[in-house]
Every structure is written in C-alpha cells, then in structure tokens.
UniProtKB/TrEMBL annotation:
PANTHER family: GLYCOSYLTRANSFERASE (PTHR22916), GLYCOSYLTRANSFERASE EPSH-RELATED (PTHR22916:SF51). It holds the Pfam family Glycos_transf_2. It comes from the Bacteria. This is Glycosyl transferase group 2 family protein. GO terms for molecular function: hyaluronan synthase activity. Residues 5-169 form the Glycosyltransferase 2-like domain. Keywords: Glycosyltransferase, Transferase. Its EC number is 2.4.1.212. It comes from Enterococcus durans. The keyword Transferase applies.
Amino acid sequence: MCKISIIVPVYNVEQYLEKCINSILAQTFRDIEILLVDDGSTDNSGEICDNYAKIDPRVKVIHKENGGLSDARNAGIKLAKGEYIGFIDSDDYIDEDMYEFLYTNIKKYNADLATCGIYDVHKDKEIKKLPYFSKLIDREEAIELVLDAKIIVANAVNKLYKKDLFNEVLYPKDTIAEDAAVILQIINQCNRIYADTTQKYYYYHRANSITSRKFTKKDLDIIDVWKANEKWIIDYYPSLYEKAHTRVCWSYFVILDKLVLIKEKEFDKEKKEIRKYLMKNIMFILKNKRLTMQRKLSTLLLIFGTNVYKLPVKYKYEKIKTIN
C-alpha cells in the first residue's frame, strides 16, 4: 500500500521516456508507486521501462498488447495500490514537487480531487504563464470551469484523484477524446475539489505533430464526446447549458479547421454537415461572449463557404509549419 499510484501509459516513446520517468523518480513526495504500462511498444520503450524497474523498487512494469491510451490507463487503475491516482503521458514531464503540491492540497482541504496548471511546451516557443487561481470549490463550479476550459481543463494528467473515483468510471476504449469523455462524471462524484493553476506539469507538443498527422474518422470523436457531455449537462446541470453548447460549437470549429486543409474529397460530407451546424448556430456564436472575435469572424467567412473559411486557417497552419 502506498499513498499515490502514478500511471504512465507507454507506447513507442523511447526518445522522451527517460526524461519523463526521471522527473517522477525525482519527486519530493516519496510514498509513490510508478506503474509503467507498456502498451505493445515496438521500439525500445519496454526495455527502458524494465531497466528502471531494476534500479527502483517503486517502479512496476506492465507489458500488454496494444490497446490504446484508455486501455493502458485502465490496466494501471486495476493494479494500482495507492490511496490516490495520478496520470502522466510518457512524452511529458513534471516539476519535482508536483505530487507533494497536489497531495498537500487534497489533505489540507479534505478534497477528492486536486489540480495544478499545465505548461504548454513547444519547440522554439516561449512557455506561457497562466493567471493565478487557487480555490476550494464544489462539483458544480468545477464542472463549469471545465466547460470554460481555462482554470480546469479536461486533461487527465495534471490532477490527483481519490482512487475511489474510478470504482465505476473507466476510460472508454472507443474514442480518442477519452479525457473529455469522463472528466464530468469523475467531478460529479466529488464533494470538494481544490483547483490551482500553479504550473507543475509540462505538456510537450512534438514538432510537426499538429501539421503532419493524417486526419481520420476517429478525429470526429471530439464532436460526439462534447455533444454527449452537452446532453449530460442538460440532464444534471441545466443552468450550465449555454456553456456546454459553447463547447460543442468549439468542437465543430476544431474539426472544421482540420477538414478544410484536406485536399481529398473523402470528408466532404462531414465538412458540409459541420458547416450546416455552425450556420444553424450562427446567432448563438456571434452573441457568445465566450468565443473569440477570431471565431466570430471565421463564422462570418463560413457564410461564403468552406473555401473562404479556409484562408485564415491555412495562413495559421503555414505559420505553425514554419516555426516547427
């Protein structure tokens, strides 16, 4: 039995893995177990995991057939012996006091869940600081903050959870938007959440990952997940409907931004459906104080079709490509 189980899904990340594991081993909070879940890696990632298990008894390795991020997390949850659970992606890293910081807040405020801020790390780009926020909140306020996507983000990784929160909730294996698919249900089980934006987690954006990955039908999951979340909000927190609907519109924008850059006609049907949805919601979007002026202007461009909408998206894409 230990205080914290840290679950790290691992898949073909030999270039980044040692930095990730070293940052966990350096934690000032020592009463931890580190569950490295090798999800069928075909590079040297599995061997790297085994080597760490030989030098530190807190490291335990699970080798399994490839099943995806959710399946790897769930495998770790089932074997976790800690009173609390944390997740880290294997190409990221953390400050040496992250888990001490989160554990202290959970105990001090008798919370079920504690959060910290995330540094977005890009090659050749300055790391941005977040506005400071630190407060004990209830589940409804926490859900509202997730919908706002500022103080609390849907990501699994920058949080410390009571293990009991996963007794009935596991990560869905059929979506790539797994974090957003469960975060509201997890928070809904909490009585007290301590939200803090002090940045302790380094989320590494790999060079060219934004511009080179091929779009697939699975990318559409983000829309389905946020539409399901919207339905759940209507049932349980109807006063938050407007914010939930804003997130749905946001998800449509995110996918359309990707689709308009595809030259093939494979996703023309989806492109038309997304345009139709956004046009149906045009007044909601234009009057929405939570959506940026850039999004509102792009909605106006969409009136003239996706080829016109594509122009600023392509410009932004070319800028990212140049930087990377």
